[in-house]
Amino acid sequence: MKIHIKNGRVIDPMSERDEVADIFIAAGKIVAIGQGPADFHANRTIDASGLIVCPGLVDLSVRLREPGFEYKATLESEMLAAAAGGITSLACPPDTDPPLDEPGLVEMLKFRAKNLPGPRVYPIGAMTQKLEGQMLTEMAELTEAGCRAFTQADAPLTDTLVLLRAMEYAATFGFSLWLRPQDVSLSRGGVAHDGAVATRLGLQGIPALAETVALSTILQLARETGARIHLARLSTRDGIAMVRAAKAQGLAVTCDVACTHVHLSENDLISFDSHLHLVPPLRSLRDRDAIREALRDGSIDALCSDHTPVDEDVKQVPFGESAPGASGVELLLPLTLKWAREMGVPLMRALDLISWKPSQILGVPGGNLSVGGYADLCIFDESAEWVVTSKTLTSQGDNTPFLDHPMQGRVRYTVIDGHIDFEAPR
Amino acid sequence: MNRQLTQDGRLRHLLTLDGLPRAIITQILDTAESFMDVGEREVKKVPLLRGKSIFNLFFEPSTRTRTTFEIAAKRLSADVVNLNIATSSQTKGEAILDTVDNLSAMHADMFIVRHSQSGAAHFIAQHVAPHISVVNAGDGRHAHPTQGLLDMFTIRRFKGEFHNLTVAIVGDVLHSRVARSQIHALTTLGVPEVRVIGPKTLLPTGVEQMGVKVFHDMEAGLRGCDVVIMLRLQNERMKGARLPSAQEYFKFFGLTPEKLALAKPDAIVMHPGPMNRGVEIASEVADGPQSVILPQVTYGIAVRMAVMAMLAGTGNA
């Protein structure tokens, strides 16, 4: 398949290219940007006039729900949804059933994903067996099977000694650990940020301390062991300040936040809408504003969707009984653009947070537009307006707090490995 | 938050006192006043809700609240069905919405709902048919609006006005839906000083943002109060990480005649019941001349009658 993408505004954060140019694709690779090869005969020409052509998005947390939770969503539905969101590479956490703690399970997932249209799937392996927080997994074997990093996802890790050993072991091989800082005891039973709103609504709180106490432990162990740490889903101003300080001291850590937390806060909970039941909880406006600022100043390295499709039945219950999580692969781009517009951040910087930067954290090719590189691209209309509904979403999970909200910015084409895996209906 | 009001500002559901306009609260209290004599008549009934079906939907066990709602509904001539779901379909795993749908199909007019989860009444109100009203009879730690209203009714009866009062709420505010409803009602009705008194382990984060003054020293907190409201301390919370023992709690936060003497001489003592004598309140106080705990129970029926009558659109008659 040869594709000629004409007249698009090409934005590539890695090379800082921002110009109207043509892109030529053949055999899964970008063969030219600008002037095409003389003998190039496209099978398909895309007129990208007025559209933005950028690297395919790289999402650091997408739950594909396989194996084990196919009733919530299937690999097929969620990979299509991700493609519809402009995502061409994704990392999936191991909190499946069974968890991704054995090479066979990882190989099976990779095999299933490879045979379906949609993004490149990079599994994140379980850090401990069955995610129980006690025995380490075979990280080296799992890496050979295709795991890019190891994590507990949202499963509790109560034993600090196990965390220390996991870091030492991972550091032995240079593997990366992705950790979501949340102290198990301080967050027990909580469903919302411990603050004035949870107090008013009578919801059990998770204090900001749950994040900072856990972060303090992780950062100290990371300094001691030299393990490569990525901090997932930061949510508090104080937590961000700790990471900023650790980076300034030369500790090689990276971090991300979920795109929901860039826009929402505890104040939105006032309706008791269970779609706002998220992990970590939506925190105060002060925390949200700190996230927005830290994304601008580079203290936060990446934005992800933290896509968690759930069955509507588990949301149609009172807030505290509902399953946490939001569907998000199709909102990652528009929510990032919204933040950039509101903060006056250039498009180049905004796209960096969802393409080049996360590809570096994940340690995979892609996330950029270069001749000879993967033909993974996202072509979108920056000004297209649409409304989030179960009809406009491809994901099987309609569970998003943004249901019925207007969005600006919509993906028109997603090219993955030189194939058009998504094309918006005209 | 205005799910409980109709577009023209009348009561549609009663879910919380948070944000409920002062005029509506006052209207409920006035209506309750008009029902006060019904209980003293030989035939304790008025025909306002004849032919209406009221379902007591209790997802959490309760005897007192359920009984007062039942009496109130019967005095309004409604048909009352009691469902203790805590012991039936919930244990069979039936989803809350299925229960609600089933009862709606039985032509219910009103649901009185109690549930252990905060927001449960909002959730049900969001899903019922348009002709059904929902009354929150207690949801988790969130709200217990009829209790809050009957407490206001009690204060008004004994103190007359709200604008010159100092009111203290003492004890486990953290877990108390009653305290939250009281705070909203008191601040809405213009009480200039609402205090909460308790150990740090039993006061929720940011409670001062609800418009109250926080005290950890009970003696300082009670000084000059017109109304002292004691909260129930649940048995399971008397020993553990929040409190070392019931004895120590009583020593520092229990209401004794000595501590009560620090409040104004004509201060009244309230308690939503059931009381733990010797834990949050001494018997001498509970049974003493300043206690209005039993009148609270009596007024509860009139207040619940008022709420149901207003929801059925007959409260202004």
Structure, described:
The complex is a heterodimer of chains A (426) and B (317). Helices cover 28% and strands 23% of the residues of chain A. In chain A, the strands form 4 sheets. In chain A, strands 1, 2, 3, 4, 5, 17, 18 and 19 form an 8-stranded mixed β-sheet that branches. Chain A contains 12 helices and 19 strands. Chain A is of the alpha/beta class. Chain A has 2 domains: 2-53 and 373-386 and 402-423, Urease, subunit C, domain 1; 56-362, Metal-dependent hydrolases (TIM Barrel, Alpha-Beta Barrel), CATH 3.20.20.140. Chain B is an alpha/beta fold and 317 residues long. Chain B has 2 domains: 2-142 and 297-311, 3-Layer(aba) Sandwich (Rossmann fold); 145-292, Aspartate/ornithine carbamoyltransferase (Rossmann fold, 3-Layer(aba) Sandwich). Helices cover 35% and strands 14% of the residues of chain B. Chain B is built from 11 helices and 9 strands. In chain B, 51% of the residues are buried. The mean pLDDT of chain B is 93. The chains are: A alpha/beta (426), B alpha/beta (317). Chain A binds chain B through residues 194-196, 198-205, 207, 270-272, 313, 316-321, and chain B through 1, 18, 95-97, 115, 117-120, 122-123, 139-143, 177, 180, 204-207, 209-210.
